[in-house]
Amino acid sequence: MNPAVLNFSLSNARALAFLRVCVGILFVIFGQYKVFGTQFTLHGGFQFWINRFLQDGAYPFMVPALRGFVLAHATPIAFLVAYGELAIGLALLLGICVRPASAFGLLFMLTLLFSSNYPGPHAPLWQYFGASLDHSVLALCFVAFLTGKSDAVWSLRARRSAKRELAAAHSQANEAKFVS
Predict the structure, then answer these.
(1) 104-128: string of b/e by CB count within 10 Å (b at 16+)?
(2) Closest CA relative to residue 66, chosen from 112, 105, 107
(3) Which helix (H) or strand (E) holds 55?
(4) Any residues with CB less than 8 A from the CB of 92 and at least 6 apart, and which?
(5) How many structural domains are present in the chain?
(6) Do the domain assignments include residue 170?
(7) What are phi and psi of 37, to 5 degrees?
(8) pLDDT tens digits, residue range 19-49?
């Protein structure tokens, strides 16, 4: 293969991996305080945010779900959010199970987007995009991780693969010594 193409591919792989690691760090930061503290999960932090979403503007189709289901099951869902954020962050940071973590991350971002970023029924189209930047940018990152190979470099998967290739190369070299 052309060395320029290989260099370009490696640069792209590194850029996508850098983005994956950065998003992973953000999710570890936001997940760890929820998991290792009790304010979010046991002392009303989650309920505070759901009520704020309802007050500040959830999409109309989300309001019944937020009021009727999410608030009714707030504590278990708070734990799911806390451990989910931490798991997504660790998976992205370490480069393991990146696609499943990205699928759940995308679902999470879309849920947050529709729960909190409604600009109103008469807002122009561009305001929907402007209001959603908090969550739509991360959603697009997760789409990139789902469609690309963000674990091709700087990941435990890539490290294991490189070790296997090195072991296979050593094995072939040793076989060649015995044959000659």
Answers:
(1) bbbebbebbbbbbbbbeeeeeeeeb
(2) 112
(3) helix 45-56
(4) 20, 21, 23, 24, 27, 98, 101, 102, 105, 145
(5) 1
(6) no
(7) -110, 175
(8) 999 999 999 999 999 999 999 999 999 999 9
